[in-house]
Amino acid sequence: MNAEQAANDICNVVNSKKEVSIVFGKEDRGLTNEELELANKLIEIPANPEYPVLNLAMSAQIICYEILKASSDDSKREWRDYPEVNSNQLQRLIDHFIETAVDIDVIDPDNPKKIISRIKRMFTRLQPDEMEASFMRGFLSGIKKKIK
Fold first, then answer.
1. Residue 74 binned pLDDT confidence (cut-offs 50, 70, 90)
2. Which of 18, 32, 81, 127 is deepest in the core (most CB within 10 A)?
3. pLDDT tier, 28 (very low <50, low <70, confident <90, very high otherwise)
4. Which residues sit opposite 2 in a β-bridge?
5. How far apart, in whole angstroms, are the C-alpha atoms of residue 98 and residue 21?
6. Where do the domains of the chain lie?
7. In the chain, what's the furthest Cα-to-Cα distance?
8. Secondary element (H or E) of residue 20
9. Exposed e or buried b for every residue in 69-81, given b needs 16+ CB within 10 A?
10. Domain 3-77 bears CATH identifier 3.10.129.10
């Protein structure tokens, strides 16, 4: 099935309060035949036939985007058990993420290119709730503790 069909199926399963797992293969060789046999469904993402390889981040981004498109406004929030973060909380989370990314040398602060604006857009699209934001900030703090 294609990514759009899979996203619709995933939303239907989630809306019926069931769990869904999405498994991605390794970038250099995908999933093994044994791993593929464990899957209930397979998602195919079309690629250029001359170079039919997508890296893991691209694959995950495509699937997440299709899930976002497939979810309706009514179904997006009904599973939330905490309120969505406000703009100040979201900005603090974004700042914390960027600061941590700089600390671990993922972002060059002197040459951030467009990555910082992409990070801001990503977190804005995610619409995290207060518990998710709190978890993420704790996770980022844990990373900072480990590197010091």
1. low
2. 127
3. confident
4. 44
5. 28
6. 3-77, 87-147
7. 47
8. none
9. ebbeeeeeeeeee
10. no
